[in-house]
Structure formats: C-alpha cells, structure tokens
Amino acid sequence: MLLPSTIWRLADEKPYAFEGFMNAMFSPRYAWLYARKCESAPLHAVSMELMPNNGQFWATLLVCPQLLNLNLLRDHFRESTFLKWGLASSQFFDMVDMILFPVEHVQSIFGFSGRPLVFDFWNLRYCEILLGLASRWATQRLIGRFCGDGLPNWAKWLGMGYLSFDVAVQAWCYGYNLPRMLMKLQKRGQLTGNPLTLWWNLGDLVGKLEDEEEEEGEEETQDRKPKAKAKFGRSGSSNLTNLLRK
Q1: What is the dihedral of CA 56, 58, 59, 62, to 10 degrees?
Q2: 193 in a domain, yes or no?
Q3: d(CA 173, CA 39)
Q4: What is the pLDDT of residues 63-116, one digit of tens each?
Q5: Of 35, 126, 131, 142, which has fewest CB within 10 angstroms of its CB?
Q6: Which long-range contacts (CB under 8 A, 24 or more apart) does 132-136 make?
Q7: CB-facing half-sphere around the CA of 234: CA atoms within 13 A
Q8: 43 or 3, greater pLDDT
C-alpha cells in the first residue's frame, strides 16, 4: 500500500500526501491533474496505482473526477469511520450537483456565476482551488522548516476539522436545503414543462429562489431593527446557492 490504512495515520506519517488528499477531496480535477502530471507530487504514484491506463484516467478526470476519490477511499483506507463515509457521501453529493446543475457547476470551476456571467471571487469551489494552491505552497515551504518531518497535533486536528466541516455542510445542503427548495418550487408550479429545458434552467430557478429568501430575510431584519444599516454588497459566505453548487 502506498498510503497508510487510516486518514489520521496519513496526516501523521505523510503530511505532504495528507495535504494532497485534502485538495483532492475538495477540488478533484485540479488536484488529480497536478498529481498525474507532476512526478514529484505526493499522490503521483497513487494516481498511477488507482488507474494505470492513461486513457481511462483522463476520461474519468474530465467526466467524473469524484470516482477517483471514491476509489482512493475504498482501496487505501480500511477504517470504517464517520469521516471516511462522510467524505464518500460528499463525493456522491458533488456528482448530484454536476447532474442537477451542469451549467452552474462548470461556471463555478472558473469562478463565475449567474446568467449573464459574473465573476464571483467568493464562489466556494473557486475559493477552494485558491486555498488548495495556497496550502500546497505553505505545506511545502513551512512543514520541513518548522515542523520537521511531521505535523503537530493541532495541525492534524485542524485538517480533520476542516474535512468534517465540509461533510456537515454538504449534508445540510443536499439532505435538507436542496429538497426544501425543490418542494417550494414544485408548490409554485415552476417544475413543469419540457424536462430538458427544466433541467438546464434548474440552477437558475434555485438561485432566484435563494435570492428571494435572502431579500425576505433582510426585510424582516430591517423591520425588527429599523435603525440598522444595510450591508454593502453581498457576502459570498452567506450565499446558500454557492453552498449547493460546491
């Protein structure tokens, strides 16, 4: 086995590989592209072991990179823990996202959102790509200099906490919020018509509904506190549509 049998041991024994593993969980296309093309990448040998056939690998990376993560979790980590199964479920949720919101999913990879296109720096997928690049730089520059060959316990717990937080967000978005929004659209009669047209525009419908709910929430807040100042602009961290399209 190229990796330890548990995620905690991975963080403990191979911190560079753990950093690559985190990037793969959040931004699989970029992480596995880097792992395959760069022979010095900590997950390069793992990518070759998962899918030795180059054609199969590149087709999977293009169409459904989450399958690489699922294979990694199944083949390399024998533990049966909440974190492992939570990460596996988050990959399924991401596949659901691609199927239900294809336009928004592609846009988010490059940091765009909306129709017409608007660059959204706070788009969660785009931010995770930037965060992954920053963490790779920090890991390669700082671990060897300040931490020796391993991570301190606080850094391991921080990484595990971030992974667990993402699992919880995905579960809330797809287990509760998305079904609630779809039921609301159904009651309004907006989920009717040509199935292909509906599928293509579903992300736009959900986005408009989220905007309406956000405006209603702001109006209620202003009614309770009439002297409060309105927020300038829009906070990406509170945009539930971005959470749904993560």
Answers
A1: 150
A2: no
A3: 37
A4: 999 999 999 999 888 877 888 999 999 999 989 988 898 888 777 777 666 666
A5: 142
A6: 132/22, 132/23, 132/26, 132/27, 132/30, 132/31, 135/19, 135/22, 135/23, 136/19, 136/20, 136/23
A7: 13
A8: 43
> In the 3-class helix/strand/coil scheme, how is 18-56 assigned residue by residue?
HHHHHHHHHCHHHHHHHHHHCCCCCCHHHHHHHCCCHHH
Cβ-contact 108, 245 below 8 angstroms: yes
pTM for the whole thing? 0.75
In which residue are the tokens 């300040």 written?
Answer: 146
125, 117, 161: which is closest to 241 by C-alpha? Answer: 125
Q: Do residues 112 and 120 make contact, with C-beta atoms less than 8 angstroms apart?
A: yes
Distances in whole angstroms, Cα of residue 162 to Cα of each of 83, 95, 157, 165, 222: 11, 21, 8, 5, 34
The answer to whether residue 237 is domain-embedded is no
Q: Yes or no: say if 124 and 242 are a contact pair by the CB < 8 Å rule.
A: yes
**Which residues are registered as beta bridge partners of 119?**
112
DSSP string, 97-122: HHHH-HHHHHHHHTTEETTTTEE-TT
Total domains in the chain come to: 1
Domain hosting 113: range is 7-184
